[in-house]
Design a protein that fits this description.
Number of strands of chain A: 5
Largest sheet of chain B: 5 strands, mixed
Distance between the termini of chain A: 13 Å
Helix content of chain A: 25-40%
Radius of gyration of chain B: 13 Å
Number of helices of chain A: 5
Structural class of chain B: alpha/beta
Strand order of the largest sheet of chain B: 1-2-3-4-5
Strand order of the largest sheet of chain A: 1-2-3-5-4
Order of helices and strands of chain B: EEHEHEHEH
Distance between the termini of chain B: 27 Å
Shape of chain A: globular
Number of strands of chain B: 5
Largest sheet of chain A: 5 strands, antiparallel
Radius of gyration of chain A: 17 Å
Strand content of chain A: 25-35%
Strand content of chain B: 25-35%
Number of helices of chain B: 4
Oligomer: heterodimer
Structural class of chain A: alpha+beta
């Protein structure tokens, strides 16, 4: 297993925290020399997933921590979110984004967030452990050419070239 | 987020959005956007060229107004979105009901056609 670097962040269950989360993600991606496109895909998924947690996971009005972990492992960027809210598997539904709308009446407004995550991330998983929800999203680095996803100076790209 | 509206020839209204259309930014403009796209106005060009992020809540705002505009026989198009915003909109499939157009000239022309949604 190849492990280059990882980043961690803890935020509170407050929507205002989403902006600092996005800044953290972009800075981490910059350090990992992840392309802007992939960083923005990750940002979009993280916003949907964490907003969902903040809005729906808690039955009280107390402050709760939401922990995030980002790492580049093997050929994937892996983003993990852990919260102590009520058990909920966002990926239980088979829904994906439709491409076949003919009229505005065909669109059901709502539910785009989870569908967006399923469309942007290559792998989505959920588990419940120690009374915590754990969501993991993986983004493959080699969907296109390596240099188009990772910058030329990426430590991952440079290391992987040795194999 | 910032929002403003300008009137063009032909009773077309161009709504310019700027900033991050996430759950926080969307709260800044949601009510104003609904107001700007309300009756008696019928034709709208929504300029997303300065929106650098869109979340599902932003898509929801666009679609709610689109539904209302279509229901009264009006037209609305998206103008020149940022490349990643366009990717999200295409992924959501909303271009099927809310056309994405690259230039203002084409957007104005689309308003005058019968076949635009």
């Amino acid at each position: 297993m190849q492990h280059i670097d990882c980043f961690e962040l803890q935020i509170r269950n407050d929507l205002i925290e989403l902006r600092s989360m996005s800044e953290w993600l972009h800075k981490a991606c910059e350090k990992l020399t992840i392309t802007d496109e992939l960083a923005r895909d990750l940002d979009a998924c993280a916003n949907e997933a964490v907003a969902n947690i903040i809005l729906y996971a808690y039955e009280d009005r107390e402050s709760h921590p939401i922990n995030m972990h980002l790492e580049l492992k093997d050929s994937s960027l892996i983003f993990t979110i852990q919260d102590d809210g009520i058990a909920f598997d966002p990926f239980n539904s088979k829904a994906t984004l439709s491409q076949s709308y003919d009229t505005i009446g065909d669109i059901t407004i709502g539910g785009f967030g989870i569908k967006l995550i399923r469309s942007l991330a290559n792998e989505c998983s959920y588990c419940r452990s120690d009374n915590k929800n754990i969501i993991s999203l993986s983004f493959y680095l080699y969907q296109a050419s390596a240099t188009s996803i990772l910058g030329e100076n990426s430590p991952f790209f440079l290391n992987s070239c040795h194999y | 987020m910032e929002i403003n509206c300008e009137s063009l020839e032909g009773d077309i209204y161009k709504i310019n959005l700027k900033g991050r259309m996430d759950i926080i930014g969307n709260a800044d403009i949601d009510i104003k956007f609904s107001g700007m796209t309300a009756l008696p106005r019928m034709f709208f060009i929504v300029d997303l060229s300065e929106v650098n992020f869109i979340a599902s809540i932003g898509i929801r705002t666009l679609l709610l107004s689109t539904k209302a505009i279509h229901n009264r026989g009006g037209k609305i198009v998206i103008l020149n979105p940022d490349i990643h915003v366009k990717k999200i909109l295409l992924m959501a499939g909303i271009d099927m009901v809310l056309p994405i157009i690259d230039t203002l000239e084409l957007a104005i022309a689309a308003m005058q056609k019968n076949d635009v949604l």
